[in-house]
Structures are given as C-alpha cells and as structure tokens.
Write a structure and sequence with these properties.
Number of domains: 2
Number of strands: 8
Structural class: mainly alpha
Radius of gyration: 30 Å
Number of helices: 23
Helix content: 55-70%
Strand order of the largest sheet: 4-3-5-6-7-8
Length: about 575
Amino acid sequence: MPDSGGRFLRARLRALPVMGGLLPVHRSDVTADVAAGITLAAVSIPVALGYAKIAGMPVVTGLYTLLFPMAVFAIFGSSRHLVVGADSATAAILGAALAGLAVAGSPQYVRLAGLAALLAGGLLLLARLARLGFLANFLSRTVLIGFLTGVGIQVAARQFPDMLGVTVPDKATPARLLDIARALPQAHAADLAVSAGVIVIVLVSRAINRKIPGLLIAVIAVIIVSRAADLAGHGVGVLGPVPRGLPHLGLPALGWHDASALVGAAASMFVVILAQSAAISRAYAGKYEETSFSEDTDLVGLGAANVAAAFSGTFVVNGSPTQTQVADGAGGRSQLGQLTTAVVVLIVLLVLTGPLAYLPDAALAAIVFLIAAGLIDIKGMRRILACRRHEFAIALLATAAVVVLGVEDGIVLAVVASIIDHLRHSYNPRNSVLVKSPAGHWQPVPVLPGTRTEEGLVIYRFGTNLYYANASRLIDDITALADHGGPLRWMVLDGAAIGDVDYTAAAVLTSVTEHLRKRHVRFAVSAVLGPVREQLDRYGIGAALGPGAYYDTPGEALEAFHAAAEEVIGD
C-alpha cells in the first residue's frame, strides 16, 4: 500500500508543470548528478565572483546567483541540462546600464540591479504569456557570435588596470586601451605577478585535463599566498571582508524613475537571455533526444529565477553555455546536479566566506580576463568568414559596435543587424524557372529574360513569402520572362515556397494578372498551400484568375497546358 501511494505521488508530481528538468530521477543517475553538481560548484564559485565584478556588484552577490535563482529554475524550468546563473554578457549589460546611476557596489547599486533583474524576469514571464518565445530566433547565431566576441574584448580590456596595478580613466574601450599602454611603465610588480600566476595555473591545468578546476585551484593558491605573505601590506589590493550567511531578502528599487532608466537595459538582457538560453536548451534536448523539453516552460523558469534574484540581493541570471557544458561533461543528466551545486554554495556562504577577504583584486581581474577571453570566438568568426562573407561582415559589425559604442548599444545594433540580414534574404529570394531534365525530373534554372519551361510556357517559382518589400521582384521577373523570348501562352506561378501573401503583394498579383490577360497570356498557380489559397481567394485573386487556375503540382499544370494546346490544334 505505501508503495502504491508513492507511485501515485510521483505520478501527480510529473503531471504538474514544475520539476520537468528534475523528474523523473533515475536511481542510477543520482551519484553522477551529485558528483556533477560538486564539480560544477568548484568551477562556478570563482567564476561567479568574476561575473559579480563585471556587473559592478559586491563579489558575494555572485555566489547568491548560484543559490535561489539556480534552485528556482531547477524547479520551474523544463530543461534537464541548462545551468542558470550569472553570465558575462548580461553582467556586462547590467554594469554598463548602472554605471551612471549609482556607485558600484553600493546598497543603492544593488537595489537597482535587483530592479533590472525584476524587469528582465517580468519580460520573460510576459513573453511566456504572449507566446513570444519565437523572438529568440531574431538574434541569429552569426550576430550572437559577433556580439559575445565584442563583449569579451570589452570586458577583457577593462581588467588590465587591476591586473597591472595601475589606474586609468574610465573611457570607451579603444581610448582605454591607449591609456593602459601609456601606463605600462608604472605597472605594480606584485599585482602583475599575482595575475600572471592565476593565468598560468589555469592554463596549465587546462593543458593537463580540462576537467581539472583550475580556477578554483588558482583562487585557493592565491588566497593562501596572500595571507601568508601579507600581500595587502605590500600594496596589493584585496577584497576585504565578505558577508557570511544567507542573502538578505528584500525589495529592489521600485521607483518609476529608476524603472524607466533601466527598461532599455532590461529589454537588452531579455533578448540575450531568450536567445542564448533557448539555443543551449535546444542543443542539449536534441543531443539526448528529450521530448519533454519545452521552451515556454523554460521561459517561466528563467523569469522566476530572475524574480528570485531581484528579491535575494543579487543580479540578472541567464543560461550559461560554459557552465552547462561543465555539468554535462561531469556526467550531469538532470537538474539534481544544479540543486547539488546550490547546496554546496549554501555551505560556502555559511562557513567559508572568511578566506575570500584575502583574495587579491588582481587575481579576480585575471579570472574575469580569462572568462572574457573565452567569449572571443576566433574559430567561430573564421568559420563564418569561410562560409558566408556577408554574414561575417554583420558579425564584425556587432563586435565593433560593442567595443566602440558599449554593450547596451551593441546589443540593439546586433538585433537590428539580425533583422536586416533576415530581410535581405527575403527581399532577394532565389527565384527560378522550373524545367524538365533529360531524365524527366523537375529542376530549377535561373530567371533570365526569355527563359521557358517549354515553348509557350513558363513555370516560375517564387522562393519565399510574398510581401511588400519583395513584390517588385515578382513584377521584374515576370516582365523579363514575358517580354523576351518566343510567344508566351501560359505563365504559372509555383507557390511551393510561399507561406504568406500580404496586402501589398496581393495588389501586385492582381495587377500582374491583368497585365498578362491583356497580353492574352493565361496566368495560373501551382503547388500553393491551402491557407495561402484562402488568402488569394479573400483578396479576389482566385476570381480574377478564373476557373481551373489552381493546380496541385507543376506536373499537373504542365499536363493542363498540353491539353489546352491539343484543343487549339484540334480546333
């Protein structure tokens, strides 16, 4: 009886729209998930400190992102693999947005960061209600690579002063790099040695085995050296006391003035969260052939995680590609691993924050530098250049925008570039004329003046949806085909690639129909989808074409053309 009650409870839990990324828990995977969670904690703790620095937040708030927000997504999300926590891209957007609103690390700064997380979380939840998950597709992979590369360059450049122990004015990245170059002779040897030591430890550990938590080893080693050698007494800046215990639960800043100042940054972070998290979740759901994955449910999880961040004294969280890869590589197969990470972080917050006081600023800057360097995707940019030169130009534009204009303006330009790239493809579709091969199969050939499918017939395929921006291309192609070459009796528009016809394009089709009728050319349509045919009928195009103008396939249109030609010969 108790066993049947347990089965009933488990069935009820699976039916709820929660814990989709956790249930069912397979007994054989528990040990691996727990071990993966511990590994993830070892990697994520030093990285989270770095993300907090990028955002301008107190370092302890980086640990807070691995507590309530991570646990909340584990409960409300559907992805079994996505790791949600602090992320370099959203941290950089947040830091740029708050720079002029409050002193970095101050209580007011933290409350404003909470408001930004609340706004981003609210947008994610609204996107779920309005079923706007498809917006993730508007930030193309090309632009995302360029954007993240720009973020990496900008964030890395901002770490050089702390790594070198020098002070330079806060300027745009190009001018900042020039100031850093001028300040090189004044570099502080101890800070330089600390940052170089961290980088060497991490790179050597990666060279030996990428599963070795080099960042954690570097942090522990530099804390021991800092305390033993009293680096603070030798002019090396250190973090100082780090609060112990659970984060303070409280309200973020809630004024309308503050909200209006941050809504643009929140929208930028919303776009990045939507695109990046969706891409990661899809990739891992496909890898493990998981049918239970739901992007809409993940939107709820991400929104709830950011709301949890807002009320727990931390900042915006996002799906992290690197941390997800760490958890997966360590054998994690469900959100149980992420819950384990949250437990480990809880233990650290309760009893192990004391040693962080000795962590040198140069070491933290070196950690952030390594994180930022990982975002600079040279291989990805080269692949784009090799495959699609015009898309490389767009990726490069996104990179330059972030470096020169800043992260927030850069993401806006990146989204605009993605949309323009999409419109460019649909504005200039790959249209063709269908002809029969010697083997009797249909094959497309370029649209050239006078091209014919057969003598007297053109079957013309339009390569995308018909809308106001590309309707003129339809006119140009049909004019070039009809006004050149031998006599034309039939013009067939093949609509296999057309999924929608807007009002402007419908008006153009009507004028084309009338133009061809005056030339005594029959105009017909083949392979058009049912919903598109209904659109054409509503626009009155079906009536203008006349009876028998729709054909299911190009072959059926060809047979009708032959039959009509035989009737003419018979007459």
